[in-house]
Amino acid sequence: MSGARFPGFPEGRQRLTPIPEAFFRELLPAIDDLGELKLSLFTLHALAQQEGTLRFLTRQQLALDSRLMRALAASAEEAQPALDDALARAVARGTLIAASAAGQPTLYFLNSERGRAAAHGLTAGEWSPAPEDLRAPLDLPERPNVYALYEQNFGPLTPMIADHLRDAEQSYPASWIEEAMGIAVANNVRKWSYVQAILNDWQTKGRNEREDLRDAEADRRRYVEGDYADFIDH
After folding, report:
1. What are phi and psi for residue 124, nearest 5 degrees?
2. Which of 90, 114, 135 is the last residue in one of the domains?
């Protein structure tokens, strides 16, 4: 077992993803590959977020979703073939339908009555996807994760940085990582090494949770002087 411990489902009203009973009755006992299982659940979720009768996914959309790719493999290089394998398995099993029109990328539909009708209409030339729908990333609600926070505040996510973030997720609470990133941004030191130094310090010396007793100016100086000064460009 790896990764940070799941803190539990939050209280209050939550958005739910409908899963057909046939998935648990027929598919779940038959699926014997973890990647296929993860992809199948993910596509059920992603398609449920769409509106209208023509609901489909492209490989590009799936490959651009960082949560799915991290779920399929530990590295970006391994995730791409893992995605192709999972898609092939899901299509072969009949969970998904793969269909395409001339000159268009393959579209993946849920093997439901609506999905089968949409796939048939596509191959019969009765409709074609708009170019913007093929390029649009999946719009799935999520709390910004450390990967998104890094890209938003520090810069492009390289494979090496992704490995550092993955290691941090396994070693520290998510709230620590987010706060350490916030301190780095506030001090204009947009370096992962600086964030890592803060996390190491908290883990070694303890982290002051008594927010009401902290002096803001003294706290700011703590992260721009002393052991942290080497990370700052003067």
Report:
1. -85, -5
2. 135
Burial class (CB in 10 A: 0-12, 13-18, 19+), 171: middle
CATH number for the domain that contains residue 183: 1.10.10
Q: What is the DSSP code (8-state) at residue 187?
A: T
186: CB partners within 8 A, 6+ apart: 220
Measured CA to CA in angstroms, residue 52 lies from 56, 58, 114, 162, 203 at distances of: 10, 17, 10, 36, 49
Query: What are the structure tokens assigned to 232, written together?
Result: 């700052």
**83 phi-psi bin (left φ>0, alpha ψ -120 to 50, beta other):** alpha
Residue linked to tokens 């093929």: 134
Residues 131 and 25 in one domain: yes
pLDDT tens across the length of the chain (234 residues): 556 677 677 665 667 889 999 999 999 999 999 999 999 999 999 999 888 889 999 999 999 898 899 999 988 889 999 999 999 999 999 999 999 988 889 999 999 999 999 999 999 999 999 888 887 778 665 555 788 888 888 988 888 888 898 889 888 888 889 899 999 998 888 899 999 999 998 988 887 643 433 444 445 455 555 555 555 554
Same domain, 171 and 90: no
Residue 188 half-sphere exposure toward CB, CA atoms < 13 A:
2
